[in-house]
Amino acid sequence: MKKFLSLILSAAMILSAGIVSFAAGDIYEVDEDGDLVSAGSTLIPGTTYYIHIKDYVKNMSDDEIPTKLKLEYEGSDYATDKKVSVLSSGNLSVSRRKFNGDYAYFAAMKLKSISSSAYKDKEIVLDIKSAELYFKDGQSEDFSNEIAGSYDIEYDDCYEITKKPTVISLDDTKDTYDIENKKATLEIDSTGVKTDMVISCDTSYDMSFGEKYMNASLDFYDFDGATARKAMVLTIPKESYKYVYERTQSGLVDVTKVSDGNFIIRTSKLGSYVLSDVALASNTAAVPPASTTPSVSTPPAATPPASTPSVPSSAPGTQGPTGGSIPYNPGTGASL
Predict the structure, then answer these.
(1) Run of H or E residues at 209
(2) Does 252 have pLDDT greater than 90?
(3) What DSSP designation does 118 have?
(4) Using an 8 Å Cβ cutoff, are 203 and 180 in contact?
(5) DSSP state, 213?
């Protein structure tokens, strides 16, 4: 019988020394601010988790510094007992990380991206049978008591589309979902369809892309390539933006369509989109970095962006009738 382990954050503190104490074997994840937080009671496919090994203290000797955690484990579908490959590797590297102002050693455990169609009832189990901890001096010790056990792995039901992969249960209806931290919405018509869709959307600013268009105000919607049988409708408030481009391996594709003050994108496969207040050069290879986010279909492999000179924030203009400089759009060469 499977057991449920609640992976909770240890709050014990050594008040006299003013040092936060972590429980060995506790599992954490990185939040949107880059901080380590408790992983909760279930784990999510496609996510990297951090297993606390031990606290860091000054002047540690080689026989005290952990370098690797080796797991003996098994993954299976809870409903059918079918074996499922759940970890990228059972050999976990250990490194020192900062947490709540102090340092500790953590082992990075990467869960594979698994489509919800790969297992029944959206739930699988990671059974860690034993663990061996290795140190810098080459010695090892048993770590099974701290981490061995069974862990639930499942996608959360989705009501808001976020950067973190979640699952939408399509149940013969037409539903609208909010995009996290945005006023944009995604409408999915699943009439006549009953299935699941794994989806995510990263709306953080892409610095490497932005450096190529220093004169533009940009906004990003980077979906994971999820597909649907019927066209989905992505609605984004136009605000001060004038153009919408889809970022592809071959360059930017203008998909600008406006209705009632909103950009409207109709597609059966969600891609990566960028909004701009000025026209952008469309021949720039602009596919975003490769993502480990799962989806119901496999997106094309990402390729590195082509080497394109950055556009200066203050580009030279053309000479006006009175000798002044007339600004122009570097993407099209047209005067503004």
Answers:
(1) helix 207-210
(2) yes
(3) G
(4) yes
(5) B
Residue type, 51: I
**What are the phi and psi torsion angles at 15 (to 5°)?**
-65, -35
Q: Is the pLDDT of residue 11 over 80?
A: no
Whether pTM exceeds 0.70: no
Higher pLDDT, 304 or 203: 203
The answer, yes or no, to whether residue 205 has pLDDT greater than 90, is yes
CA distance 311 to 139: 54
* CA-angle at 203, arms to 238 and 167, nearest 5°: 110
User: Are 235 and 260 in contact, with CB atoms under 8 Å apart?
Assistant: no
pLDDT digit string, tens, across residues 288-331: 655 444 434 334 444 445 544 444 444 444 444 444 444 444 44
Q: Give the phi and the psi of residue 274 in degrees, each rounded to 5.
A: -135, 130
Q: Are strands 251-254 and 27-30 parallel, antiparallel or unpaired?
A: unpaired
Write the secondary structure of 140-179 as one string of H (helix), E (strand) and C (coil).
Answer: EEECHHHHCEEEEEECCECCEECCCCEEEEEECCEEEEEE
Which pair of structure tokens corresponds to residue 290? Answer: 């490769």
Q: What are phi and psi of 209, to 5 degrees?
A: -75, -45
Query: CA-to-CA distance for 187 and 177, rounded, in angstroms?
Result: 6
